[in-house]
């Protein structure tokens, strides 16, 4: 692989005009497709194999013409202090609003509060239910404007009016912190490279890759039913890995220049060595993201595949466009150790003009002076001297951070988790005040009596059974369809939608329904958004272990091929488990317990999003393997070339620690930038991934990994001989380049000038 990538890097450097033209053309094509694509339509949230989904599908069949996924709105009215909603003036204002809402072109029905028992017992709060023929994402802006105008007229009459439901759902905004994250990444790159040009290359290539990926997602959003969150997550992950992959290529290129190679040769070797690590790191991320398909939740699968596509684009750009841009940059990208004018370089010394090969890793050192060991070298030397103490401290620290994860509660966000500044949240609070917390999460019970001899009696039996259950506030009379073989019953719990009591009630209805089915032949199914959330959480919990086995197993096999070792991949997987559990603990502490919630902009604590654990496992595992591959391949490279195990660890940190640290800080900055999103799911994922990268990069890879390798010594690189013969040689270390060079009559390293020591 190294030889192929070496040739690819040299070709891209030499044919840079052609390579740049291809990527610009792809960006233009994707942008044109996004601009001309129809707006995204409905985003179906189906959960195959769950009872809630089965009931949802049954409603579509038995109640034709009534779209179960149509948008809904609850217009909530509150009377002024000292008045009631039944007062003549207030009642007239509400009825006028209801009449105006009913005239909407996309409105299916509007329920009058005064004829539908939708006035609170104390008479201060009432609501009108509006159902639409299309989903919330398909509603025309004129329909949304009409809804808000009708509410405003009621406000002008003196009422407090708020609107809940999904009719006014908006595309989530990420806020200014996303830009701040990119700015932090830029600063880190400038400090790392000491040059605006070298720092700009990773940013430019990452933005082009993300532009192509997100534009492609936008262009296909309507056809593939991709939600707005899909493009945000693809942008989040694509930016992070795009910058990191380009960073590693550019860093290796500068190191090759410092050893005296010509620029085209340096570009080829950078892609052949660091590029090999990029390919395998990218593969682990893609495996983890595509593996989300095993959960069998279409929305999650689409999110994973879209993000994986963006990662694949980032890998391709790092292998081709980065060397092409290095060709354009020329001498403005200086060798490693040679400071640019930005950081005070170029003022004195024989190499101030940046002649290639004039400076080694130590920069402009005197002829007789040894360069000072960098921080990575000093840290690694300390760890290999005290491996057991560092290992214990790292494991205990991550274990302590993981403790809150034992209290993890899962759920899906509803209007109750929205900021209090939104009308949806204020409507949620008003309904809870007037009708109880369970009113915001009604359960829909579907009774399928097609195989029953007495359908009407079966409907009544189910209704009576539910009334006798604990935790039920109200049960509506059964509403049969035209055929009389199916009926719906609405159940109001006495607890809020995301509570464990509501979950217990759902299970109780299902258990009791089996007894009714045995007596009457009628099947009882529970659906609705609350039941759907409960089923999603259960499905995700059930899928977590198989997903872990699949993703970790595949990546474990891949890393065996890369490192030609058993213990190194095993150590990598165990270290990942530590970091992801610690990150989940931090998520629970902030979003469920409320620690530092004000700093993070979390206005409402509650259950952690159901998708968070499995999504974090997938994404964090892929990103964790990035640092493992980049750092440990440098160690293996040194070990293969004859260094002792402990010295190889130090050498790996000497060349890789600075770059890995910069990459981790950049990735954290990019992820943290999404904490400012208005979407609670995006905010939580941004925080979770940022803290996970911190734990994994700085505790696991920078402390635990060298400590374990120091304790294992040569055993770390042990591989059974039979397995060594069976595995393909992918040559991540670039040994093939060195061997090929030794077979030539010329200098094996190609166009090398003597480097000073």
Characterization of this structure:
- By secondary structure, the chain is α+β, with helices and mostly antiparallel strands.
- It contains 23 helices and 11 strands.
- It has helices spanning 2-14, 16-36, 51-62, 88-102, 141-156, 177-193, 196-224, 228-258, 263-290, 298-329, 375-385, 387-402, 423-435, 455-467, 500-520, 529-563, 567-592, 597-600, 612-640, 645-672, 680-712, 721-726, 735-742, and strands at residues 72-78, 107-111, 125-132, 160-165, 410-411, 443-448, 472-475, 479-480, 486-493, 523-527, 608-609.
- A hairpin with a 5-residue loop joins strand 8 (479-480) and strand 9.
- The radius of gyration is 30 Å and the shape is elongated.
Topology record:
Elements: H1 2-14, H2 16-36, H3 51-62, E1 72-78, H4 88-102, E2 107-111, E3 125-132, H5 141-156, E4 160-165, H6 177-193, H7 196-224, H8 228-258, H9 263-290, H10 298-329, H11 375-385, H12 387-402, E5 410-411, H13 423-435, E6 443-448, H14 455-467, E7 472-475, E8 479-480, E9 486-493, H15 500-520, E10 523-527, H16 529-563, H17 567-592, H18 597-600, E11 608-609, H19 612-640, H20 645-672, H21 680-712, H22 721-726, H23 735-742
Parallel strand pairs: 5-11
Antiparallel strand pairs: 1-3, 1-4, 2-3, 6-9, 6-10, 7-9, 8-9
Helix pairs in contact: 1-2, 1-9, 1-10, 2-7, 2-10, 4-5, 6-7, 6-20, 7-8, 7-10, 8-9, 8-10, 8-20, 9-10, 9-16, 9-19, 11-20, 11-21, 12-17, 12-21, 14-15, 16-17, 16-19, 17-19, 17-21, 19-20, 19-21, 20-21
Characteristic terms for this protein:
single chain, 757 residues, alpha+beta, 5-stranded antiparallel β-sheet, 4-stranded antiparallel β-sheet, 23 helices, 60% helix, 7% strand, elongated, disordered C terminus
């Amino acid at each position: 692989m190294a030889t192929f990538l070496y040739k690819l890097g040299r070709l891209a450097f030499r044919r840079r005009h052609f390579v740049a033209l291809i990527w610009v053309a792809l960006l233009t094509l994707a942008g044109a497709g996004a601009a001309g694509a129809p707006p995204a339509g409905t985003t179906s949230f189906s959960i195959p194999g769950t009872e809630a989904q089965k009931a949802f599908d049954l409603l579509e069949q038995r109640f034709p013409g009534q779209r179960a996924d149509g948008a809904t709105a609850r217009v909530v009215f509150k009377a002024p202090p000292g008045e009631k909603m039944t007062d003549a003036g207030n009642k007239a204002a509400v009825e006028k609003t209801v009449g105006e809402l009913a005239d909407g072109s996309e409105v299916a029905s509007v329920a009058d509060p005064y004829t539908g028992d939708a006035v609170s017992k104390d008479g201060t709060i009432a609501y009108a239910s509006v159902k639409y023929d299309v989903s919330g994402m398909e509603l025309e802006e004129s329909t949304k404007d009409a809804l808000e105008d009708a509410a405003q007229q009621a406000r002008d009459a003196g009422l407090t009016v708020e609107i809940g439901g999904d009719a006014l759902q908006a595309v989530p905004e990420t806020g200014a912190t996303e830009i701040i994250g990119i700015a932090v990444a830029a600063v880190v790159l400038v400090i790392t490279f000491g040059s605006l040009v070298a720092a700009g290359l990773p940013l430019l290539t990452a933005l082009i890759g993300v532009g192509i990926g997100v534009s492609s997602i936008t262009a296909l959003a309507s056809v593939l039913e991709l939600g707005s969150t899909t493009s945000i997550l693809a942008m989040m992950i694509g930016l992070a890995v795009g910058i990191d992959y380009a960073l590693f290529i550019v860093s290796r290129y500068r190191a090759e220049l410092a050893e005296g190679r010509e620029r085209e040769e340096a570009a080829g070797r950078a892609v052949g060595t660091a590029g090999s690590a990029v390919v395998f790191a990218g593969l682990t991320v893609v495996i983890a993201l595509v593996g989300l398909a095993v959960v069998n939740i279409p929305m999650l699968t689409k999110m994973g595949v879209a993000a994986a596509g963006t990662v694949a684009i980032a890998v391709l750009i790092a292998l081709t466009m980065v060397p092409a841009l290095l060709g354009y940059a020329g001498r403005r990208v200086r060798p490693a150790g040679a400071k640019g004018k930005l950081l005070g370089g170029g003022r004195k010394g024989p190499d101030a003009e940046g002649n290639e090969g004039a400076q080694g890793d130590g920069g402009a050192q005197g002829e007789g002076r040894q360069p000072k060991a960098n921080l990575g070298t000093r840290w690694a030397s300390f760890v290999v001297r005290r491996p057991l103490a560092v290992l214990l401290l790292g494991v205990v620290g991550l274990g302590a951070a993981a403790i809150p994860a034992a209290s993890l509660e899962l759920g899906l966000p509803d209007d109750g988790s929205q900021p209090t500044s939104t009308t949806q949240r204020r409507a949620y609070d008003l309904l809870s005040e007037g009708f109880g917390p369970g009113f915001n999460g009604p359960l829909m019970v579907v009774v399928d009596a097609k195989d029953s001899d007495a359908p009407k009696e079966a409907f009544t039996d189910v209704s009576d059974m539910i009334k006798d259950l604990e935790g039920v506030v109200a049960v509506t009379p059964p509403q049969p369809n035209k055929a009389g073989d199916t009926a719906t019953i609405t159940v109001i719990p006495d607890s809020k939608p995301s509570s464990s009591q509501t979950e217990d009630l759902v299970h109780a209805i299902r258990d009791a329904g089996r007894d009714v089915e045995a007596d009457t032949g009628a099947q009882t199914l529970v659906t609705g958004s609350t039941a759907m959330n409960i089923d999603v959480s259960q499905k995700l919990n059930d899928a977590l272990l198989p997903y872990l086995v699949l993703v970790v197993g595949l990546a474990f096999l891949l890393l065996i091929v890369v490192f030609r070792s058993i213990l190194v991949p095993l150590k990598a997987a165990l270290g990942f488990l530590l970091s992801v559990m610690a990150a989940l603990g931090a998520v629970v502490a902030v979003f469920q317990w409320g620690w530092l919630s004000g700093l993070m902009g979390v206005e409402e604590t509650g259950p952690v999003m159901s998708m968070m654990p499995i999504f974090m496992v997938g994404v964090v595992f892929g990103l964790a393997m990035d640092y493992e591959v980049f750092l440990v391949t440098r160690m293996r490279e040194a070990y293969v070339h004859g260094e002792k195990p402990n010295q190889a660890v130090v050498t790996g940190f000497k060349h890789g620690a600075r770059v890995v640290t910069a990459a981790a800080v950049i990735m954290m900055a990019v992820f943290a930038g999404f904490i400012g999103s208005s979407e609670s799911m995006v905010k939580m994922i941004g925080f979770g991934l940022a803290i996970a990268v911190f734990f994994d990069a700085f505790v696991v890879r920078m402390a635990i990994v060298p400590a374990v390798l120091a304790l294992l010594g040569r055993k770390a690189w042990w591989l059974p001989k039979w397995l060594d013969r069976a595995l393909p040689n992918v040559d991540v270390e670039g040994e093939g380049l060195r061997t090929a060079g030794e077979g030539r009559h010329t200098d094996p390293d190609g166009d090398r000038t003597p480097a000073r020591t």
